[in-house]
Amino acid sequence: MNFTEHTVLVVDDEKNTRDGLRLSLEDEFDVYVAANISEAEEVLKNESVDVMLTDLRLGGENGLDLITRTLARPKPPVCILMTAYGSVDVAVEAMKKGAYDYVGKPLNIDELEIVIKRAIRGRQVEEENVALKAQVTERYGLENIIGRSAAMQPIFETIRQVAPTRATVLIEGESGTGKELVGRAIHHLSGRPKSKLVTVHCAALSEQLLESELFGHERGAFTGALERRIGRFEEADGGTLFLDEIGEIDLNTQVKLLRAIGERTIERLGSNKPIKVDVRVVAATNKDLGEMVREGTFRDDLFFRLNVVSLLMPPLRQRKEDILLLVDAFLKEFTEENGKPLMELTSEAMQALFDYDWPGNVRELRTVIEHGVVMSNTQKIGMRHLPPFLKDDSLLSFREAGKRGGGSSAPAPAVDPFAGGDLNLARMEEKMIRLALERTGENRTEAARLLGISRRTMQRKLKEMGLVEG
Question: Are 82 and 102 in contact (CB under 8 A)?
């Protein structure tokens, strides 16, 4: 460590002592001096000081008072007390007031340098730990799951409750709702945050590749297996294994996964030697595993093993009050990433975000805000800077009503709107709107939701059709 970059403030009312300490210490540190509390506070106000070395007696003033006042400042220096009136009582009082250490006069310069360097090292380690903790929390903590809505509060409470346990957790919800963020938060808040969090995206791998990925393989286990490879269960030993899109696992692999979770034992492909693993499993899916069990495509015993604690992530359309918080966070992220000043959305653009149903959920909103930041050359993001589907919210935009709701289709019309070969756009829209109103008992809000349009668009089209007064 290069200590010449660190600053020491010497406070002593005796000029010879001040000057002597400056000469003795300036080869190792950047040294400032002060004769009293007023001069010391002036230095502290204008300079960044790492260590303050103060005498107990400062003329008619008390060095302990200076320590108290200094430690009340934002980002205070480490304080060391010098005293010729050394006693256990003085030392205890100094420590109670927050002093790092104390040294007796006459001073031994070599010992004093050791104390100062130790103080600087300790301060640096503390700052690094704080920074690391903040970084980890920012990336993986609950603070990274944004939401104050009533729909999100049970999610936060369940995470806090289940995280310190060893329970297997199943996180369900539509794509883009933040299931992986929840998995990371559970790991971070668990009793094993310093151990590994290993993620497997099950849908991205074929049956044989997934089995090898999870459990590993021996050399020669299959064509192309040129060497032994440990699997993700072994890699996550002592930590957490996050299985994303677990509904995509084939039935054969499900049997082996059931054993791995239940018995905490695996076997590599090409081997019959059992390997014990200590792994906490957190799984996520955008499918209805209960329905898959009824259809016979997912094992009921594995479902029950995974579903010890379940979390259902609400879609964004059910917690629109969180949109403003999410937008603020994404604006900050993408303006910093692109070297732009902090931006804001116009009221029209913000209203468009609230009117949209967000089939892609938080992930889709994040993409929209990134698009707006990139496309705007001012500090305002307006409608012209947003993606086309938010500018054109007509019935025939490429976000068809049937694709709303995270991939689940809207109910099919009871009558074919194209019947009779009528392809006139205005008449088609009118038929669909009348049919939606009929099916919802003239409830315009529900009819708009059924058609996948905003209430504002529904109102405008009703006016165009002459069904409401303009």
Answer: yes
